[in-house]
Amino acid sequence: MAGMTRPNVGLIAARQSKESFAVLATNCVCTHKIVTVYDRSFLFPLYTYPNDSQSEKRLTTFDTRSANLSAKFVHRVSALLGVRWTCDGSGDLLHTIGPEDIFHYSYAVFYSPAYRSRYAEFLKIDFPRLPLTGNVELFRTLTRLGGELVALHLLESLKLEKPLTTYTGPANPEVEKISYARDTVWLDKAQTRGFRGVPEAVWSFHIGGYQVCDKWLKDRKGRTLSKEDIAHYHKIVVALSETIRLMKEIDEVIEKHGGWPGAFRGTPAN
User: Cα torsion for 111, 115, 120, 124, to the nearest 10°?
Assistant: First the structure.
């Protein structure tokens, strides 16, 4: 977790779960029940940083980081795709790939509804396995889609600046009773203040054991929402709406290249 206090991105996943499978990207320190309600979540940072004692032994600065991927894995992916490896950041996806390309590709695969359905029983009892592809076009497209998802989930995407919803009510509403009706997430019993224009699919969307639109507000029950809180909720709705769209597109792309398991070759790798 120490590496998450520096420039980094990590994958949160559970080894086993009673709820539906989920993963989530993070760029900060997190607690142990993020994608699960009952079971422990684990963090897989993309980069590792040496600690102070290691820095002295290596004669390097504390800020030197390394991709948290084995040499065997890197060699295998590079050989499958016929590209060179770059040790930090992203490659050009033509001649080179980097750690962040692998992260984005993985994120897209794990957000494939068909992947989650096909391997549902396995995903309940162990960490997700990552199928690899030797199809460069498929890899590039999934990397792009996964990158869009990561940007959305880290609330860094420019798409978040164009809200789908409008807020109605006083400037600083108290979160009293959360309900959903008429495409609106209401904050009070009388249903006079809330967020209008929330699609039902977005309201119902779960990440693991959590219904995101509901959970975020329930955690703030009895509190007053600030202007920043209201803007943040607008972004959550956009992020979830785009996630639903991208998940569908990911499956369409995989199907176009042969579907499951034809679009992927080789044995799944950790």
Answer: -50
Token pair for residue 122? Answer: 């396995």
Is cis: bond before 268, omega within 30 of 0?
A: no
Q: 0.85 exceeded by the pTM?
A: yes
pLDDT by residue (tens digit) across 166-196? 999 999 999 999 999 999 999 999 999 999 9
3-class state of residue 148 by DSSP: helix
Q: Which residue has the tokens 């050989």?
A: 79
> How far out from the chain centre does Cα 241 lie?
14
Where residue 84 falls (left for φ over 0; alpha for ψ -120 to 50; beta otherwise) is beta
Q: Are strands 66-67 and 166-168 parallel, antiparallel or unpaired?
A: unpaired
Which pLDDT value is given to residue 63? Answer: 59
